[in-house]
Design goal:
Elements: H1 2-22, H2 25-32, E1 36-42, E2 48-55, E3 61-70, E4 79-96, E5 99-114, E6 137-149, E7 152-161, H3 162-170, E8 182-190
Antiparallel strand pairs: 1-2, 1-8, 2-3, 3-4, 4-5, 5-6, 6-7, 7-8
Length: 192
C-alpha cells in the first residue's frame, strides 16, 4: 500500500518537473515579484511598518501591502496591524535620467489591527452605541509625494482616518482641524 503511494507520488513529481522545465519560471517570478519594498515611520499604520508594493505599467496606480508595529514601550501591549494601500499618482516628472519626482499621490488605505482589545463587531459587554465604529478596522486618506534617485526613494504621506474626520465634524468646537492629521515618512527601494 505504501509502495503504491510512493510510486504514484514519484510519478506525479516527475511529471510536474518535466512540465515545469517547458514553463518559464523566470517570467512568472518576474510578473509576481513586487516593484518595491518599503520602510515607513508613523502614518497611522504602525509606528514602524514595512512591506512591498506594485506599480501599474502606466505608473499611475500603486498598491502596497504593509505590516505595522507599535512597540510595547509606546502602548500597553504591542500593536500589530496589516494595511492594504492604493494610490493614484496624478503628477509625475523625470528631471534628469536618475531623478524622478511624484509630486502628487492621492491614497486610500484599509488597516486591520490584531489583538483582544480590537473588534469588528461590538462585544456584548458594551452597551449598544458605546462605540459607533469597529476598533479593529481603520480607513484612511493620504496625500503625499516621493522623490526617487536611481533605485532609492523617499516619500511622505499626510493623512487622516475616517474616525478622526467624523469626530472632528461632530466636535469641531473641541477638536482643532490640525489635530486630525498625521504624517508618515518612508524609504523605498525600487526592485524594478
Amino acid at each position: 500500500m505504501h509502495k503504491t503511494y510512493l510510486i504514484t507520488l514519484s510519478l506525479l513529481c516527475t511529471s510536474l518537473l518535466s512540465s515545469a522545465q517547458s514553463f518559464s519560471t523566470d517570467s512568472l517570478l518576474k510578473k509576481i515579484m513586487p516593484n518595491n519594498v518599503k520602510l515607513q515611520y508613523a502614518g497611522n499604520i504602525g509606528m514602524f511598518s514595512t512591506g512591498f508594493g506594485y506599480v501599474s505599467p502606466n505608473k499611475r496606480w500603486m498598491g502596497d501591502f504593509m505590516y505595522g508595529l507599535v512597540p510595547s514601550s509606546y502602548a500597553k501591549d504591542p500593536i500589530h496591524s496589516l494595511t492594504l494601500k492604493g494610490k493614484y499618482v496624478s503628477l509625475n516628472r523625470d528631471y534628469i535620467q536618475s531623478l524622478q519626482v511624484s509630486w502628487l499621490q492621492l491614497g486610500l488605505w484599509f488597516n486591520y489591527s490584531f489583538g483582544d482589545q480590537y473588534f469588528l463587531g461590538l462585544p456584548s459587554y458594551y452597551d449598544p452605541g458605546y462605540y459607533y465604529f469597529p476598533t479593529a478596522l481603520n480607513i484612511g486618506l493620504t496625500l503625499g509625494s516621493e522623490v526617487r534617485y536611481k533605485k532609492w526613494g523617499l516619500y511622505y504621506e499626510l493623512g487622516t482616518t475616517e474616525k478622526r474626520m467624523i469626530n472632528y465634524v461632530k466636535n469641531s468646537g473641541s477638536i482643532n482641524f490640525s489635530e486630525i492629521w498625521n504624517i508618515g515618512i518612508g524609504l523605498v527601494y525600487h526592485l524594478k
